[in-house]
Amino acid sequence: MLRRTIRPLDLTSPDELAALLDRHDYLADDGLATAAFLALRMRRPLFLEGEAGVGKTELAKTLAALLDAPLIRLQCYEGLDASQALYDWDFARQLLHLKTAEAAGVADAARLEGEIYDRRFLIARPLLKALETQPSVLLVDEIDRADDEFEAFLLEVLSDFTISIPELGTVRAASPPVAVVTSNRTREVHDALKRRCLYHWLEHPGFDREVAILLRRLPGCTETLAAQVARAARRLREAGLVKPPGVAETLDWTEALLTLGARELDPGRAAATLGAALKYREDVERVLGEGLLAHE
């Protein structure tokens, strides 16, 4: 495992970044390595789009490990608003401070107002925390699950990496965090946000790379089992399922098989462990009913 701390501007080429990611067990193809390299060197957010489980979130985690920087994650969901992503005031501590001051006989209203809006009473949410932490990797995960209003707000933050706090002033990042924005494309993200970022679409890995991922991440896996699982996963992805398995599910499936002592993908164990790869009853029933687990 790599121990030396890397700075984004130290990197000289996409090949060097791919080699470093490889040493952290993330196998990136040329397109992804180039997009990530340019985002790091140009200090631009990287927008990763693709189906669930193809490695978007894992790339952000690996970059954090590679750069020896904390990963600050903002998980998006419907109804997420600025206060939950940006900052909030600790009202309980502010109230306690006012009661303590009142008990001590402090009656200066202007002084008290200044004290309760001190930085110590501010709770930093992910976006503010990323701006104040140097260095850091900011992961805005599944932006497509958030509302349009939050997406517009995020665009403003990513434009100049500054946040205005009325009671305290403007907080500006001394150096922009490495920002990774992901989308599973459950809805279209506005062009304005994409234009602010460098964009890359992540495909499911090809057969050889998926086999390499399984062998790298699961040392006990045989080449035979890795190849059979990769072929089966490819068939499932081509079958038009509600939710085809991504790399994450392929890894889970293989690990489940290894836990049962499998060294190859026999139909019985494949069917018994299918819940590690598929998450919808309709998909499981169709795969078993149509015999999609049969060997090629």
Plain-language structure description:
The protein is α/β, with parallel strands linked by helices and 296 residues long. It is 48% helix and 13% strand. It has 14 helices and nine strands. The model has no long low-confidence stretch (mean pLDDT 90).
Number of strands: 9
Give the termini distance in whole angstroms: 37 Å
Radius of gyration: 24 Å
- Whole-number average pLDDT? 90
Q: How is the biggest beta sheet arranged?
A: 5 strands, parallel
Q: How much of the polypeptide forms β-strand, as a percent range?
A: 5-15%
Strand-pairing-aware structural class: alpha/beta
List the secondary-structure elements in sequence, H or E.
Answer: HHEHEHEHHEHEHEEEHEHHHHH
Give the low-confidence spans: none
Shape: elongated
How is the largest sheet built, in terms of strand order? 2-5-8-1-9
- Supply the number of helical segments: 14
Helix content: 40-55%
Give the tags.
elongated; alpha/beta
List the helices and strands and how they pair.
Layout: H1 14-23, H2 30-42, E1 46-49, H3 56-67, E2 71-75, H4 82-85, E3 87-89, H5 91-103, H6 109-116, E4 122-124, H7 126-132, E5 137-141, H8 148-160, E6 162-165, E7 169-172, E8 178-183, H9 191-196, E9 198-201, H10 207-217, H11 223-237, H12 247-259, H13 267-272, H14 281-290
Parallel strand pairs: 1-8, 1-9, 2-5, 5-8
Antiparallel strand pairs: 3-4, 6-7
